[in-house]
Write a structure and sequence with these properties.
Blueprint: H1 7-17, H2 20-35, E1 38-39, H3 47-51, E2 59-63, H4 88-101, H5 112-115, E3 119-123, E4 128-129, H6 141-155, E5 160-164, H7 165-169, E6 181-185, H8 190-193, H9 203-213
Length: 221
């Protein structure tokens, strides 16, 4: 695996790439991509870091692992490539935004437009085997992405962390709540949303209120 990560991150994360767990992870990913269909494409594995540079991070949204269907994953959590039908979780995310801001439902499910405004769309696991959800979990990605979260928490101030569902909420222990805003709610998946754990959470409005309070530009969701 070619660790092609943006320079702004490299200076903070370089020590990770030298650690034994990361060497083992890189070998695992290389092997998986050579023997199976995996997502996202190899040049998109670190896309979240390319679109949102370290100094620009204002919001962090944490997902679990990439979409495992053809042409869906583009390296940003919850995001799909242009022209791809929106998966159920993304539909519920857009419905919540539609309701919070009274704006039309967006045509494109590609969230690069958020990433380019400072929203780090970080999956805990950055790769997956086709049609096998969770197939690359517990291989080392979570150690790396936990380090990313800790680095943002330690080296930055006033970042909004959105933790959706039980898995993401466990990441709260990595974040200094005195320096940052942590917003939690249920997962946007239909299972959670239909039980009343997602809609009406006001996460997107509350993030913008906080950003404006600290004199930062709100996100155009």
């Amino acid at each position: 695996m070619n660790v092609n990560i943006h320079e702004s991150w490299k200076k903070h994360l370089a020590p990770e790439f030298e650690k034994p767990y990361f060497t083992a992870l890189a070998n695992f990913v290389k092997n998986e991509y050579s023997q199976h269909t995996c997502y996202p494409k190899g040049n998109r594995i670190f896309a979240a870091f390319d679109h949102t540079h370290f100094n620009d991070v204002k919001v962090v949204i944490i997902g679990q692992d990439p979409y495992h269907g053809p042409n869906q994953a583009n390296g940003l959590c919850f995001s799909v490539q242009e022209g791809i039908p929106h998966p159920p979780s993304l539909i519920n995310i857009f419905k919540e935004i539609q309701e919070e801001f009274q704006i039309p439902y967006p045509k494109s499910g590609n969230l690069e437009r958020w990433a380019n405004q400072g929203v780090l769309l970080l999956n805990a696991t950055l790769t997956v085997r086709a049609h096998q959800a969770g197939s690359h979990q517990n291989q080392g990605w979570e150690i790396f992405t936990d380090e990313v979260i800790k680095t943002i928490s330690n080296k930055k101030e006033h970042v909004v962390f959105m933790l959706w569902g039980g898995f993401a909420k466990k990441k709260a222990k990595l974040i200094d709540a005195q320096k940052h805003l942590i917003l939690t709610t249920g997962h946007p998946s239909p299972l959670s949303a239909n039980r009343g754990y997602w809609f009406g959470n006001k996460n997107f409005q509350n993030a913008n209120i906080y950003l404006e309070k600290i004199a930062k530009k709100p996100i155009i969701w």
